[in-house]
Amino acid sequence: MEERPSAIDLFCGAGGLTQGLQNAGFEVHWAIDSDAAAVETYRRNHGSHVVEDDIRETDPAIDGPDIEPGVLDLVAGGPPCPSFSTIGRAKLGSLKNRSTENDDRNILYRDFLRYVDYFEPAAFIMENVTGLLSDTAVVETDTIQQSLPTVSASTGEPVGKETPVPEIILEEIDALGYHADWEVVDAADYGVPQHRERVFFIGVREGDTFPDVKRWKTHREPKNERERKISVRSTPGAFKESSQTTFSTDPAVPPFTRGDTARRPYVTVADAIMDLPPVSPGGEMPPSEATEYTLPPVSPYQEWLRDIPEGEDWDEQPLQNHSCRWHNHLDLSIYKLLGHGVGWNIGDVSQEIQPYRDDVFPDKYKKQNPSKPASTILAHIQKDGHMFIHPTEARSLTVREAARLQSFRDSYWFPESRTNAYRLVGNAVPPRLAHAVGHAVREEVLK
């Protein structure tokens, strides 16, 4: 049996990146995160090799995994950089005596690079938000050793050269002896039922082949209305074809083939969630929570998500994390007004129906379109669900629906606390996207 390449996962969160790497054939030996709920979720799904600790206070030689430098194949992770995110800027800007400039989380990538420097892996993958690409930082000189801002004694303001953050990161990577570049990829292009653009910094040893993740795309924009309709799994006699459905024999999660031109249409919201039982804020009929499936999987993607063990029937599996949050009558009335895929910025509607001050957080209402991939699932879903309204029911998405749109299978456990579960789902790397990036690195670098 071929030995699986080795990896560790820094800032592992709920384990989406680990799940994708495992699907790509990696064995993840160690993971770390400072969030207790994330560590519990990771441990429940992946095992006890995860550590709860603040990476800034760790020494990879002492606190890291028992792996000799130069042996590890891959270091992977997504250091949180909220000040590089538009959402992050809004949040930090609304906090008293705090700004993006003094938020130390925007240099956590250096702790990631500390582990790369110590373990000397064959390659590394660092994921982040695309807002990082347009950000800048003040540096004293062009030398990497002095790239942190210095402060004026008279004004207290940073002084020096304003430099694009990606340039700073690439220079620091180069100083470690790695060749690196970044790519912006959309999760929908790799079979995730969600448009989610993320930037991946991928580094390899100097002289090694550099992977091109975009050559491994499996999905594309639909060519016509027929391709936009829900793809129904072709179980003989199980379903009848109608004007609303299109039968498909394509695999739900096609294999990654470099340069594949026969890409499938995007996986849609309907493909992902419309088989789940209805739930309602009122909790009568439908109930507020469903713990059992009432329909078999309809689409091939739903069948893959169900992850039904061989020999068991679809109705023998428990349904997890599918409960509806409470909504007031104002929210429900607005939800009913919106058509599929329609969104309103809070400031665009009259003051009488605005739930927030539009000068603090530029929130919006958005009903998901069943015939398209979802909009980006954000951790903000833990606060409210206005941006993530169900296509046909007057409510926001459940944790399980959000997890499916992130490509987590139904067997993946999330905490019973909806607040924690929503946050973990929104912050996660979609496993299917991580699978694609990990597969590209394994095939183009490690072989």
Automatic annotation (TrEMBL):
Key words, A-Z = Methyltransferase, Plasmid, S-adenosyl-L-methionine, Transferase
What protein family does this chain belong to?
Belongs to the class I-like SAM-binding methyltransferase superfamily. C5-methyltransferase family.
Task: Give the GO molecular function terms.
Answer: methyltransferase activity
Query: Which EC numbers characterise this protein's activity in its record?
Result: 2.1.1.37
Give the enzyme's main class according to its UniProt record, as a single word. transferase
What is the source species? Answer: Haloferax larsenii
Query: What SUPFAM superfamilies has UniProt attached to this entry?
Result: S-adenosyl-L-methionine-dependent methyltransferases
**Per the record's keyword annotation, is S-adenosyl-L-methionine included, yes or no?**
yes
Q: From the Swiss-Prot or TrEMBL record, give the protein name.
A: DNA (cytosine-5-)-methyltransferase
Q: Where is this chain compositionally biased, Basic and acidic residues type?
A: 219-230
State the Gene Ontology BP annotations. Answer: methylation
Please, which domain of life does this record's source organism belong to? Archaea
Q: Which Pfam families match?
A: DNA_methylase
Record keyword Oxidoreductase present:
no
Q: Which InterPro entries match?
A: C5-Methyltransferase, C5_DNA_meth_AS, C5_MeTfrase, C5_meth_CS, SAM-dependent_MTases_sf
Q: Which PROSITE patterns does its entry note? A: C5_MTASE_1, C5_MTASE_2, SAM_MT_C5
Specify where the region named Disordered lies, as residue ranges.
219-260
